[in-house]
Amino acid sequence: MKRQSGVTLVELIITIVVLGIAIAGVVGAFAVISGRSADPLNQTRAINLSQLYMDEILTRYYDESTPVGGGKVASGDVDCATGGPDGETRPTFDDADDYDGLADSPPKDGEGDDLSGYGGFAVTVAVTCAGSEVGVAEEDAKRIDITITDPSGQDWLFTAYRTNF
């Protein structure tokens, strides 16, 4: 009688079960990785968007009473209690605290037009007097907080200080 070689039905079923478990683990890992693939892109876009807003705000005067050509505003002339526009619209904002309370969804450029490529993003701005945080008189520094919310709902907070000089 000739001896036959091969695998038995039991060995074949065990191999299929082991391979099925291994493939399920690998597919699960790929699902987690692909679900997070947009995070770096959203983070980069949030950084670019915050830089655009921050550059716009930091190029404005420190306060409404800043002298023409720049210079330090007298401490008594800075009003830390009120923020937001002084009757201006976005294209005519002239000082940093005009941006306090700004909320753009979708984000807009300095002229108030929607920025292309940022659908699903939202921007909020808060400007507060914060001199004590940096070791100067309270009214001599303003903290600018920009919060970017990406399409996945993640918030990104960016902060800068604008000083009275």
UniProtKB/TrEMBL annotation:
PROSITE patterns for the chain: PROKAR_NTER_METHYL
Protein origin, superkingdom: Bacteria
InterPro entries named in the record: N_methyl_site
Keywords, alphabetical: Membrane, Transmembrane, Transmembrane helix
Source taxonomy: Bacteria, Pseudomonadati, Pseudomonadota, Gammaproteobacteria, Pseudomonadales
Name this protein carries in UniProt: MSHA pilin protein MshD
Membrane-crossing segments per the record: 12-33
Region listing for Disordered, in residue ranges: 73-115
